[in-house]
Amino acid sequence: MSLLFEEFPPVSTADWEAQIARDLKGRDPKTLVTKTADGIEIRPFYRSEDLAGIPSEELYSSNNWKICCEVTDASSAQYAVSRGATALYIEKGGLKFDNVEVIRGDSPDLFQVQGETAAEELASVLRHQSAKAVMFPVGPDYFLEIAKFRAARRLWKRISNKPVQIYARTSKRNQTIYDPYVNLLRGTTEAMSAIIGGCGLLIVRPFDAAYAHPAEFSRRMSINTQLILRDEAYFDRMPDPAAGCWYIESLTDQLAKKAWDLFGGAAKPFGKQRPPAFVGVNRYVDAKDRALDRLKIAPDEQRDPWSIEKLRLATERHAQATGKTPLVFLLRAGDRKMSRARADFSANFFAAAGFAIAEGDSDALKQQQPDLVVLCSSDPEYPGLVQELSASIHVPLIVAGTPPPGFPDSISIRSNQAETLAAWQQKLGILQ
Fold it and tell me: Which residue of 107, 115, 153, 283 shows the fewest CB atoms closer than 10 Å?
């Protein structure tokens, strides 16, 4: 294997940086650096020298993780075991089951980490050194979550000579009630992060848990997700698959240091971050999707998508009560490229709150009876277009982009989507 790359000349870090500068055509390379919620910088590329000073770890084996399923009684436990579960989790009470480990959520030996930033989660675990097991939620940031589990083992060794069992449960915070089958993909990638990171036990939440008592199909899929990763993707075959990855090793080290600072009180916790993008909720919205009839239990309001979902549910209820879904017309004018881009943005923006969407030019507008008109054009054209249209449009008019001076209403990528949509729902009588 060492001979594989000898035919290729080495490329220095300086060469990489020079090529990046050429490709950016004058843009500052620092614009490629992003930050995690904990303030850790993520660079566009990593080299072997980035591992300098980072302690090497003993490889762990990821082939022993237990496929765990949440159950409520003996019947659901029997079903889970019959489908391939090798461990069971019950929130409260005692449940005895032969040859299968049973985890109790109310056990004093189990510390369940609440959803925070990755470093805050790790720091909170360190403050519970008496725990024999800790259960982490698994968030959507794939590589960061791998690093979190790796950092957890490293940090625990620094504070205790007693072993701790590291459990994982896919997140409830990013499950959605709209386009719910995407939750299957979310659960799968989160499961991959936890397994690669080295969890000893994993629970994949049923994809419909946010809005219903999990059905037989969703409970089966939560187990099958892990069976596929084990038996078809062979995640049980390679010990510590992230070991030696310059990016993940560096991220693990930075995350461990950040958590250690928080544990020792040397740094302040980070505030709640802005909710990310959710497919089917505020990105790539299926405007025809309806969730009101899908709800079998009260939706979990602690999830990040709820700030948008509750607005869409309000629109659905309004439509049921009045027989009409509010219509937003996207008026395209002027520059074709800009009008197309801003119409696409605006359609996604308002469809997230359940508004019906139509678009076209001024002639198409005459055939509609919209509740709101969004002007989609280029910034330089807005002053003239607004002046021309204001007299002929008798419903609220807003612009997509930078509004002309003195014009009050606009939306852009800088808008707080939930607050803006709620304000328009109030103006249109949807929210009282």
Answer: 283
Neighbours of 79 (CB within 10 A): 16
Q: Give SS3 for 169.
A: strand
Determine the residue type at 134.
Answer: V
For residue 233, the one-letter residue type is A
Q: Which CATH number does 292-427 carry?
A: 3.40.50.280
Question: Identical fold at 66-263 and 292-427?
Answer: no
- Least Cα distance to 179 among 290, 320, 277, 302 occurs for 290
Does 3.20.20.240 match the CATH number of domain 66-263? yes
- The pTM of the full predicted model, rounded to 2 decimals, is 0.86
pLDDT tens digits, one per residue of 94-137: 888 888 999 999 999 999 998 789 999 999 999 988 899 999 99
Whole-angstrom Cα distance, residue 332 to residue 329? 9
Here the tokens at position 275 are 């909710």
Identity of the residue numbered 178: Y
- The letter for the amino acid at 327 is L
What is the band of 2 on the pLDDT scale with cuts at 50, 70, 90? low
Element (H, E) at 358: strand 356-360
Beta-carbon contacts of 233 under 8 Å, excluding residues fewer than 6 positions away, are none
Please state, in angstroms and rounded to a whole number, the distance separating the CA atoms of residues 13 and 48: 10
Q: Which two tokens stand for residue 272?
A: 């709640």
Closest of 413, 424, 419, 117 to residue 277, by C-alpha: 413
User: Contact, 121 vs 148, CB < 8 A?
Assistant: yes
Instruction: Domain ranges for the chain, please list them.
Output: 66-263, 292-427
Instruction: Give the amino acid at 89.
Output: Y
DSSP annotation string for 195-238: HHHT-SEEEPPPTTTTTSSPPHHHHHHHHHHHHHHHHTS-TTSS
CA distance 119 to 124: 9
How does DSSP classify residue 84? T
- Rounded Cα distance, 20 and 8, in Å: 20
